[in-house]
Design goal:
Length: 347
């Protein structure tokens, strides 16, 4: 046990969930970042994507709250305006680079509209290249929808199998796999439906990870929180979300996993923070409970930026503020008043 716990993978995983710190997911695919840029009226070009990511990565002080950043294939090859490759720029601030390696959710053959995540072919070779470029952890996301008999057992198990195949290749290459099974919260489902689907998915994922010889001490889990569907007639509040999510995690996630880093999944920025805080308030837990947010860390920054370099400082302040709020939620020190105090202080 002691030998396994001191390996490099476990050390990297624990560094990613160090107290007060979490992960920035900045790994939007070219299609997804184009949608985000559309919402602020900015054309998505290689240069606008690079400039936006540089703004985030060079935010003064963000490294106090951010342990690692997940990059997209294009981004890990890009550099700052001054010519420093992003992985080196981040490493100089003590921030660990990660890489999204899946190739997206594609239609699952012979299913009724469900998806399977692709990207296993050639993955060993891609890991070798990403490792040489400076990546120390990786991400693969599978998605599941709720309603009309979904997720099917078929969809749950093929995605769990692929997640474990990816995790094995990541560990073989010396990268920490972030295992991301996302049960989508779109729809009218109840929080009980969400708990049931999330539990089934996690059970399948940990069965496959075990069968495929993954060392859980060198992994992180990136799950959805257990929420009512976004279009449900009545929606559960933060206390019930915290209780239901924890109940599900306690049933299905082994204590050998060092950390659970939630995705935000379309929650409002403040809800994502409030929910994480409510779960940490019920600690201590067997795993660190942290964040790996995309939208919930970036939206205010994106809207402050609007593609104008003159807005960069405002955008960086907005990003750093959300990072600070989520950092506070790691130790259950977040309160809505903290949002207002920080704004009043002109942070
Ligand atoms: P969101 O926090 O916007 O859901 O993104 C996290 C992520 O990395 C999804 O794969």
């Amino acid at each position: 046990m002691a030998a396994r716990m001191s390996n490099d993978l476990n050390e990297t995983a624990r560094a990613l969930v160090a107290p007060g710190k979490g992960i920035l997911a900045a790994d939007e695919s070219t299609g997804t970042i184009a949608k985000r840029f559309d919402s602020i009226g900015v054309a998505s070009t290689e240069e606008t994507r690079r400039a936006y990511r540089e703004l985030l990565f060079t935010t003064p002080g963000a490294e106090e709250f951010i342990s690692g950043v997940i990059l997209f294939d294009e981004t890990i090859r890009q550099s700052s305006a001054g010519g420093t490759p992003f992985p080196q720029l981040l490493a100089a601030k003590g921030v660990i680079s990660g890489i999204k390696v899946d190739k997206g959710a594609k239609a699952l053959a012979l299913s009724d509209g469900e998806t399977v995540t692709e990207g296993l072919d050639g993955l060993r070779e891609r890991f070798a290249e990403y490792s040489a470029l400076g990546a120390r952890f990786a991400k693969w996301r599978a998605t599941f929808s709720i309603g009309g008999g979904r997720p099917s057992e078929y969809c749950v198990w093929v995605n769990a199998h692929a997640l474990a195949r990816y995790a094995a290749l990541a560990q073989e290459a010396g990268l920490v796999p972030i295992v991301e099974p996302e049960v989508l919260m779109d729809g009218t489902h109840t929080i009980a439906d969400s708990a049931q689907a999330t539990g089934r998915v996690l059970q399948a994922v940990y069965t496959e990870l075990h069968d495929q010889r993954i060392d859980l001490a060198g992994t992180l889990l990136k799950p959805n929180m257990v929420l009512s569907g976004y279009e449900a007639a009545t929606r559960s509040g933060p206390e019930e979300v915290a209780e239901r999510t924890l109940e599900c995690l306690y049933r299905h996630v082994p204590a050998a996993v060092p950390g659970i880093v939630f995705l935000s999944g379309g929650q409002s920025d403040e809800d994502a923070t409030l929910h994480l805080d409510a779960m940490n308030a019920r600690g201590p837990h067997p795993w660190q409970l942290s964040f790996s947010y995309g939208r919930a860390l970036q939206s205010p920054a994106l809207h402050a930026w609007r593609g104008q370099s003159g807005n960069a400082a405002d955008a960086q302040r907005a990003y750093c503020h959300r990072a600070r709020m989520n950092s506070a939620a790691r130790s259950a020190a977040y309160t809505p008043e903290l949002e207002r105090e920080a704004v009043a202080a002109g942070e």
